[in-house]
Every structure is written in structure tokens, then in C-alpha cells.
């Protein structure tokens, strides 16, 4: 066997083993919720600050109007948005904040942040370790319900939006910043379809091709304001984030 043939065989074997291991890991995550939560928490704990930084300008705009009264944030993760709510300008009209997060391993970090922020916040902050829709908030009414990078992961998008709509007071706002399905006729859409089985398994059920805007506008909103943009990604697009950089951001008023 020549050196080149030997190298090709070794590369083929290593590549095959890596793909096999990834596929096996994906199956394990699908079968065991606890392991899937652990894997996703490891991933999100390592990248949530970076993702937050890359959305800083947009979040400033997102949170600059509509944060009034009683606010519910669904899927708070590690609590990266706390700083916006407790910002003396952005959060000046908030009366209470409830943060819902089902993943226990992220919830620990969220609680740490909330304990710290509670010392200086002018309003009470509650945390709830549960999925939305949740009995713990089912009888409240909110002035604003916030979703940031969450609607891609919820099990049932329409049920989630239906419950959010129900919990909003008349005049209340759904505030969202979400990655959505890339244009149907694009290389990115094809790539998203191909990688989806692995992405969804390791990424807490996140769907790259979810039609979130279409689902939001189905409700009987008094007014909607939606911006669409493509977020810059590191390494000139050679990053997996490229698959999730078609973003919608805005608010829908009941
Ligand atoms: C990609 S992370 C985003 C976290 C945070 N919003 C941020 O911007 O950093 C998605 C979060 O949604 C949470 N999540 C998924 N399904 C949920 C549900 N049905 N109810 C509440 N949170 C949910 C996950 O546990 C995870 O923390």
C-alpha cells in the first residue's frame, strides 16, 4: 500500500468513526431527555455570552420599547437578558419580571444572576423552573411576554403562541427575536435540511426551518412590527451559526 492510500484509508476510518459517534450521540439525546438537557446546557453555557454579544445592538433596539408593567420572559437560559430589564432606562417602567427556564442546569446559573440583580432592581424578579405553557403562570396576565431564541425550540409553536396571546392583557406586547427558516430556494436551506437531524438532537429540539413569522402573524394582533435581517457570522460564514442567522425581531400588540 502506498503512503497516499494508507493516509486515505486512515482519514476515511477516522471520518467514519466521527460521523458514527455523532449519530449515536444524537440518538442517545433523542431517547434520554436528561442527557439531552445536559448536552445542551454544556453547549449553551459555553456560547450564550458570545451569542448575546453578537446580538447586542439588536437587543438594545428590541428592549427599548414595550417593557412595561408585568413582564414574562420565556426560556431565559442563563439570564443574559437580565441586564436589559434592570437597565435604568430600558426597564424603568417594569413592575415585575418573571423568568421561566426548564433546563435545571441553566436554571442554576439563571438563579445566580437573579439573586445578584435583585439587590439593585427596583422591581421583584421571580424565577420558575418549568416549561411554557406552565400552570405556574397560567392565571396571570402580562403586559409583555418576551421570547429570545426560544420559539425555534418549543415543542408546539402554535400552542405556545396561543398561550402567550391568551396571557397578554389587551394592549400587551409579544416581544421576540428569533432565528427562522432561510429562503426556501437557497443553498443554506438545503444545508439546514441536511444537518437538521443532528442539530435538533444536540440543540434542545431547535428547528432550523421553522416558519415562526408565519405562525405569529396568524393571531388577531392589533398591530405588528417585524424586522428581518441576516446577522453577520464569524469566520466569513464558515461557522455553523450561518445556518441560524436569518433573524426576525419585533413586537406584536394584542
Ligand atoms: C437557545 S436558548 C436561548 C436562551 C435565552 N433566551 C438566550 O437568549 O440566551 C433556548 C432556551 O429555551 C428554553 N426552552 C425550550 N423550550 C421551552 C419551553 N417550552 N418553555 C420554556 N423554555 C423553553 C431552553 O431550555 C433554553 O434555555
| Percentage of residues assigned to helices | 40-55%
Could you give the order of strands across the largest sheet? 3-2-1-4-5-7-6
The number of E-state strands comes to: 7
Q: How many helical stretches?
A: 8
Radius of gyration, CA atoms, in whole angstroms? 20 Å
Give the integer mean of the pLDDT values.
93
Task: Report the CATH C-level class of the largest domain.
Answer: Alpha Beta
Euclidean distance between termini CA atoms: 71 Å
What is the N-to-C succession of helices and strands? HHHEHEHEEHEHHEE
CATH superfamily (homologous) name of the largest domain: Vaccinia Virus protein VP39
Strand content: 15-25%
Q: Identify the overall geometry.
A: globular
Largest sheet geometry: 7 strands, mixed
Class derived from helix and strand content: alpha/beta
What binds here, in terms of ligands, is: S-adenosylmethionine
- CATH third-level topology of the largest domain: Rossmann fold
CATH architecture of the largest domain: 3-Layer(aba) Sandwich
The structural domain count equals: 2
Runs in which pLDDT lies below 50 for 5 or more consecutive residues are none
Keywords: Membrane, Transmembrane, Transmembrane helix
Protein name: Mettl7b protein
Transmembrane segments: 6-28
InterPro entries: SAM-dependent_MTases_sf, Thiol_S-MT
Amino acid at each position: 500500500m502506498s503512503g497516499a492510500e494508507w493516509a486515505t484509508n486512515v482519514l476515511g476510518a477516522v471520518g467514519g468513526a466521527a460521523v458514527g459517534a455523532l449519530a449515536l450521540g444524537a440518538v442517545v439525546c433523542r431517547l434520554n431527555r436528561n442527557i439531552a438537557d445536559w448536552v445542551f446546557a454544556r453547549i449553551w453555557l459555553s456560547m450564550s455570552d458570545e451569542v448575546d454579544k453578537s446580538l447586542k445592538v439588536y437587543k438594545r433596539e428590541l428592549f427599548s420599547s414595550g417593557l412595561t408593567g408585568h413582564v414574562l420572559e420565556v426560556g431565559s437560559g442563563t439570564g443574559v437578558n437580565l441586564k436589559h430589564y434592570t437597565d435604568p432606562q430600558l426597564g424603568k417602567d417594569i413592575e415585575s419580571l418573571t423568568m421561566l427556564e426548564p433546563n435545571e442546569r441553566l436554571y442554576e446559573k439563571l438563579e445566580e444572576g437573579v439573586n445578584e440583580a435583585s439587590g439593585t432592581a427596583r422591581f421583584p424578579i421571580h424565577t420558575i423552573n418549568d416549561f411554557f405553557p406552565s400552570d405556574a403562570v397560567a392565571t396571570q396576565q402580562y403586559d409583555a411576554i418576551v421570547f429570545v431564541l426560544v420559539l425555534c425550540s418549543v415543542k408546539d409553536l402554535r400552542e405556545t403562541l396561543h398561550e402567550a396571546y391568551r396571557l397578554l392583557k389587551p394592549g400587551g406586547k409579544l416581544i421576540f427575536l428569533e432565528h427562522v427558516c432561510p429562503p426556501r430556494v437557497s443553498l443554506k436551506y438545503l444545508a439546514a435540511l441536511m444537518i437538521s437531524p443532528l442539530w435538533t438532537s444536540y440543540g434542545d429540539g431547535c428547528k432550523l426551518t421553522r416558519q415562526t413569522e408565519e405562525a405569529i402573524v396568524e393571531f388577531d394582533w392589533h398591530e405588528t412590527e417585524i424586522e428581518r435581517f441576516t446577522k453577520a457570522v464569524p469566520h466569513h460564514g464558515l461557522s455553523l451559526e450561518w445556518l441560524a442567522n436569518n433573524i426576525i425581531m419585533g413586537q406584536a400588540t394584542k
